[in-house]
């Protein structure tokens, strides 16, 4: 793992936090509840990006620390087997492949 990967990972976490802040503003316009916070736990192969939802923790996405791929979460402990959705090396740090709830689906089934 190199410095550029770590820098991009933390920029990605900032992007996720911004999405959570926007979601918080919509769900709690009067600011009564404490904000949800985003954090990261770096493991040997993957970094787990998770959100403290005030009641529990939920996995947002995983990041492959070797390739920079953003992966959809399958469980608390592991990414989906074919879950690559984007990259932290993209110009937008992966913002186009995620929402406040996690990685976007690969296919848009609703469009004609």
SSE topology sketch:
Layout: H1 3-27, E1 37-42, E2 46-52, E3 57-64, E4 69-73, E5 79-87, E6 98-99, E7 102-103
Antiparallel strand pairs: 1-2, 2-3, 3-4, 4-5, 6-7
Descriptive overview:
- This protein is 22% helix and 35% strand.
- The chain has 112 residues and is α+β, with helices and mostly antiparallel strands.
- It has one domain.
- Strands 1-2-3-4-5 form a five-stranded antiparallel sheet, with helices on one face. Strands 6-7 form a two-stranded antiparallel sheet.
- The N and C termini lie far apart (42 Å).
Main sheet strand line-up: 1-2-3-4-5
Rg, rounded, reads 14 Å
- Compute the number of structural domains: 1
Measure the end-to-end span: 42 Å
Q: Could you give a quick summary of the protein structure above?
A:
The chain is α+β, with helices and mostly antiparallel strands. It has one helix at 3-27; strands spanning 37-42, 46-52, 57-64, 69-73, 79-87, 98-99, 102-103.
Q: Features of this protein?
A:
single chain; 112 residues; alpha+beta; five-stranded antiparallel β-sheet; two-stranded antiparallel sheet
């Amino acid at each position: 793992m190199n410095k550029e990967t770590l820098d991009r990972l933390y920029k990605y976490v900032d992007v996720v936090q911004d999405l959570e802040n926007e979601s918080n503003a919509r769900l709690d316009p009067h600011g009564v509840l404490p904000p949800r916070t985003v954090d990261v736990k770096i493991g040997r192969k993957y970094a787990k990006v998770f959100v403290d939802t005030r009641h529990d923790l939920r996995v947002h996405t995983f990041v492959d620390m070797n390739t920079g791929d953003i992966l959809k979460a399958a469980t608390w402990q592991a990414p989906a087997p074919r879950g690559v959705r984007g990259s932290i090396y993209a110009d937008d740090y992966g913002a186009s492949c995620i929402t406040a709830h996690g990685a976007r689906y690969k296919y848009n089934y609703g469009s004609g």
